[in-house]
Structure formats: C-alpha cells, structure tokens
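Our example copied in:
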Amino acid sequence: MRYLKYAWLIICLNVHAGEWSGYIAGEVRYFSHPPLSSEQYDDINVSLFAQPEYSHEWDNGYQNVVFVPFVRLDQHDSERSHFDIRELTWLKAADTWELRSGIRKVYWGVTESQHLVDIINQTDLVDHVDTEEKLGQPMINLALIRDWGSLDFFILPGFRERTFPGQEGRLLLGGMPIKTDQVQYESGAKDKHVDWAVRWEIMLDDWDIGLSHFSGTSREPRFIPEVDGLIPYYEQIDQTGLDVQFTHEDLLWKFEMISRKGEEGGVTALTGGFEYTFVGVFDTDADIGLITEYLFADYQTTMFENDMMLGMRFALNDAQSAELLAGIIFDLDNHSKFYMIEASRRIGENWKLTLETYIYSHIPADDLAYGFRNEDLVQLELAWYF
C-alpha cells in the first residue's frame, strides 16, 4: 500500500511537464513436458504485462524524478500476477557528486552466464527464469565522482523477499511449492533489517574495474524442506566482490569473483572468460561474437560448481535490430546441460518480437537442477513501445 501512495505522489507532481514512455506486451509460454505435480498447469500459458516510465527533470537538468511501475496478469499462476514499482527515484546531481533517494534498480557485473557481484536488488523469479528481472529496492545512494574513480555508498532500508511461482505455476523446484507465508530470517529484524553497501569503480585505459562490499540480508535464500513444500530462509551475509572487464579491439575479457561469509562459514565463487567479435562477416554489416566462460563455486547450494559456458552472439545491425544469442552451459563433473536461445527483432517503429527457448538435458538426480528436468520452455513475446 505504501508503494501506491508514493506512486500517486509522483503522478501528482507536474505530470504534464514530464515524459511518458515504456511498453505493453503479451507473452505465450509452451512447456513440452508434463509437470511434476498434478496441481501445475500442463503446456500453454498466456500473460499480459506492462512497464510504463515517467520522467521529469528541472533545475537545468541537475534534478529529476523517475517512476517505473510494472504489472503482470497471468493466465494460470496467481503468484505471477503481480504489481511492483521498479523505480521511484529522485536525483540531485552536482559536478562531483550525485544523490539518489527512493526505489531503484542497480546493476553490477560484466559476465554473460551469471552475475555474481550483482546483489543490491532482489530477483523477480516469477517474471523470468533467467533471473535477470529484479524488484525495486528502497535506498539512499550517494555517489562521489573523482579523478580516481567513482565511489557509491548505499543505505538499503527494508528487505524484499524473492518472488516464486505459485503452487499451480511452472518452474517450481522439483514441483514443490515455496511456502513464502512461512519465510524465516536469521535477523530478528526480519525484513526491516537495514543493509548497506559500497562500490568503487574506475576506468583505466582499456580496463573497467569494480570493487564492492555488501553487508546485510542475503538476496538468495536457502530452503528448509518440509513434506508439503520448501520454506525460504534468509541469512545475514558479508559479500566482497570484484568485477573486471578488459577491452582490446574486438576482444572483451570478463571476470567476476565474490567472497561471502555467512551463518555457515565462508564461500568463494568466480566466473571468467572472453567474448571475441568478428565484425562485418562475409562483407556485410553483421557481427558474430563467440563467448566462452568458466563458472566455479566451492559450495553446494549453487547449480554452477564446475561448469563451462559456450555461446554465440549474432547481430545483423539492420534497421530492425535483429539479434540472436545462443549458448550452452554444461557441468564438467556430471555432464548435465542447459541450452538457451534468445532472438529478437523490431517490427516497424513501435513493435518488438522476442523468442526464447530454454532446455534442460541429462540432469542427474543429485544435481540441484534436477527439479527442472521437465521444464523445457519456449516463450514468445510481442511488445508495443510508446
């Protein structure tokens, strides 16, 4: 309810002086295998969603406000039908500093296969299986801009629980419902715990370097198994992260690493690799990029303990911005595989068509991904941008 009050306040602040943009979209999902639970829907699901954006600036551009709501209506999954405020932020800028306050989305990371250092926002898992969609996070953010780089300080009042499909939805872990009404926390403050973070970024010639630290409630829950479902448990953690990208002509070298300490001790994870782009192949405007990344973690609550990702990015660079990204992540120990294809193309001035496919193959029973063995998915999305 408080988010709706904030939204109404922003809309009332000289809306006529600002600008509206965004998109409205429809989505069709098709699952080729039957679900693991009889309560889940079988094959086809339809949903409608929208993300408008209002922005208004004043003070010669040194102040602005941005409001980005999101809403989805889903055919079968009541948990997937939801409303969120992705952003509701006021910015005050100066020559050497910036102050932001409100609800925001902040992205950290450089690698393709996963984003280890990206920890500020909570994952909106009902919205998309790739974990790229995030919930808005209340925050106060002060950025100092200097010759030696930029330094960001974050105060994060209030925690947002991860969203999960409902009992009738797909992409459940082993077909077992997530009992979000029984969520547990290590902190006595529960979702009122105030987290904090700091990040330093610098560009040195061909190098982009980021060093970050986060202290607070983990965005990634552990699960307490029960007979009729899984209970999310959120512990307190301290996580230090490093991300580096080196750019040399057509080569990108990418690396992310985290060290995390929590209730059960310390863990380390890293992802690193490169992307090489062949520009103007076959004397055309098209580019082809080859991607290779290695994924490692020394703990067992992740699906990527010792994995390799191989991928290809194809961009026509035409008027319709046609693109395709295809990849495979395979486990070097048990040989399980995860295939992914994402393709998109603009239609006319205001429409965009997106096709995505996710396939799980040869998943052994002792793999964390075993619960997704029947969740092969084809997703078609048509969006109108305004």
About this structure: The CA atoms of residues 267 and 384 lie 43 Å apart.
